[in-house]
Amino acid sequence: MSVLQADEEELGLSEDTLRALKEFASLNLGLDPNAADFRRTVQDAMDTIPRNENFTFNFTSDAPQTQPGAGDAVTVELSGVSPELGQTLASTGLTVWTAARHLAHYLFHIRDQIAARTVIELGAGLGLCGILCAKLGGSVVVTDGGDEFTDEALGALVEQVERNRSVTAAAFECAVERLTWGDHDAFLKAHREGFDVVIAADVIYEAEAVVPLLSTVTALLQAKPRARFLLGYTHRNVNIDRVWQEAHARGLDWREIADDFSGSESAAQIYEVRLKEEQ
Ligand SMILES: C[S@@+](CC[C@H](N)C(=O)[O-])C[C@H]1O[C@@H](n2cnc3c(N)ncnc32)[C@H](O)[C@@H]1O
């Protein structure tokens, strides 16, 4: 009896199904299809595959806000992989990074400046910050793009938005669109009115992405008077000074927002960026 036949009997699969399973496991999981105990080999591999976890982000404050729609307690529910596994993923957008958590706290802190405003999130990943803005009464488009933004990542982002829409009693305006930095002409044509607030978290990690990112940010800031860009930044491979050099050349100015809102020390910073003449 061949190993294949023995496995087939143990697993209760037809020979064709087992062959297909072995081919899949060999191509996609790098497993040995001839392993004596194939079932155990598959099981062990499945145990090391990142599984989705549910994350609940609660934002609360005692201080009442002046704008209607800006709630004093907001919850965002997401599902993704744990950040510790993020580096091993096909897309860095399948988890929530520190900079996004920090920026989200800041956005909640300034929620009366988000309610009834138009907001776009760049490089949204699972979309924590954009979804929060929609829950705070903003009219939001969450975007992501580039080589890493697979159909799986797009599906994950849409899933997060719909999941939060379904548990939100109030109006929840949140669209999902593809937008690759530096390739924004068609997008801006479809959104001529621009956005009041541009947000992005943990998008500075590849030197070659800085110029396209800033070109899209500049185009978005030019599309609407007094628009501003709020960046959640964690130091990775790219020094922030390199970013500001490039921003300066594009007529942008920036300031670091003092961290007097999170109530705890964070490994991330928030910057506000505007067109120079509007300072
Ligand atoms: C480190 S993740 C941050 C995700 C999310 N903002 C967070 O902080 O949790 C970087 C995100 O930028 C996106 N990205 C990378 N290159 C891009 C590009 N050229 N255009 C648009 N998005 C891009 C990735 O797909 C990913 O979602």
Task: Output the radius of gyration.
Answer: 22 Å
Distance between the termini: 79 Å
Strand arrangement, major sheet: 5-4-3-6-7-9-8
Taken in chain order, the helices and strands follow as HHHEEHEHEHEHEHEHEE
Strand content: 15-25%
**Mean pLDDT over the residues:** 86
| Major sheet attributes | 7 strands, mixed
Shape summary: globular
Structural class computed from helices and strand pairing: alpha/beta
Question: How many domain units?
Answer: 2
Percent of residues in helices = 25-40%
Q: Please write the CATH class name of the largest domain.
A: Alpha Beta
TL;DR of this structure?
The chain has 279 residues and is an alpha/beta fold. The protein is built from nine helices and nine strands. S-adenosylmethionine binds next to helix 4.
Could you please describe the fold and organization of this structure?
It is a single chain. This protein is α/β, with parallel strands linked by helices and 279 residues long. It folds into two domains: 3-48, no CATH class; 53-278, 3-Layer(aba) Sandwich (Rossmann fold). It contains nine helices and nine strands. It has helices spanning 3-11, 15-29, 38-48, 98-109, 128-135, 151-166, 185-190, 207-223, 240-249; strands at 53-60, 73-80, 118-122, 139-144, 173-178, 197-201, 228-233, 252-257, 269-275. Strands 5-4-3-6-7-9-8 form a seven-stranded mixed beta sheet, sandwiched between helices. A two-stranded antiparallel ribbon has the order 1-2. β4 (139-144), α6 (151-166) and β5 form a beta-alpha-beta unit. α4 (98-109) packs parallel to α5 (128-135). The longest helix has 17 residues, at 207-223. The protein is globular, with a radius of gyration of 22 Å. The chain starts with a helix and ends with a strand. The relative contact order is 0.11. It binds S-adenosylmethionine. Residues 91-93, 96-97, 99-100, 123-125, 144-146, 148-149, 180-181, 201-203, 209 line the site of S-adenosylmethionine (SAM).
